[in-house]
Structures are given as C-alpha cells and as structure tokens.
Amino acid sequence: MNSTTPPPAVPDGDVAVGYVLVPFFLFTIIGIVVAVIMYIRKKKRIDRLRHQLLPVYSYDPSEELNEAEQEMLWREEDTRDPSSTFSR
Hints:
The protein contains 3 helices and no strands. 68% of the residues lie in helices and 0% in strands. It has a domain at 15-55. It is rod-shaped and about 105 Å long. The N and C termini lie far apart (120 Å). By secondary structure, it is mainly α. The chain has helices at 13-53, 65-79, 82-85. This is Small integral membrane protein 29.
C-alpha cells in the first residue's frame, strides 16, 4: 500500500445527524413563528370587530327591567297575526 494516499473517508455520525436535525429544527422554529403571527393577527381582528360591535350590543344597567319586559311584549304584539286579534 502506498503511504501517500489518505485512508478512505469514514462518514461521521455527527454529520449525518446534522443534516437531519438542522432542517427539522429550522422548520419547527419557522412553523412556530408563523403560528404565533397568525394567532396575533386573528386576535387583533377579533378585538377590532368586538370594538366595532360594542355600541350595537351595549347594555344600559340603568334601564329598568319593567321597560325591557314591556318592549319585549310590544314586539310580540307586533309579530302576531292580525286576523287572530279579531276572532275574540
């Protein structure tokens, strides 16, 4: 055997693991970052919608319960069939 030729290269197990683990961790970190960004955008969108709808669905605690009940009764009377009121 010639002493000037280097011995054949034996692949290290560390290099092979690096080729697998580095992309795995890279994709995992990118996936987590994308999920966090999507969660923050969704939360901002829901908060914005909530603030737009808040005046529509606001409840006035100073309103008397009897007034609220009376409004519900008036609405029921408006939705009744007019022919049924004359049958008495």
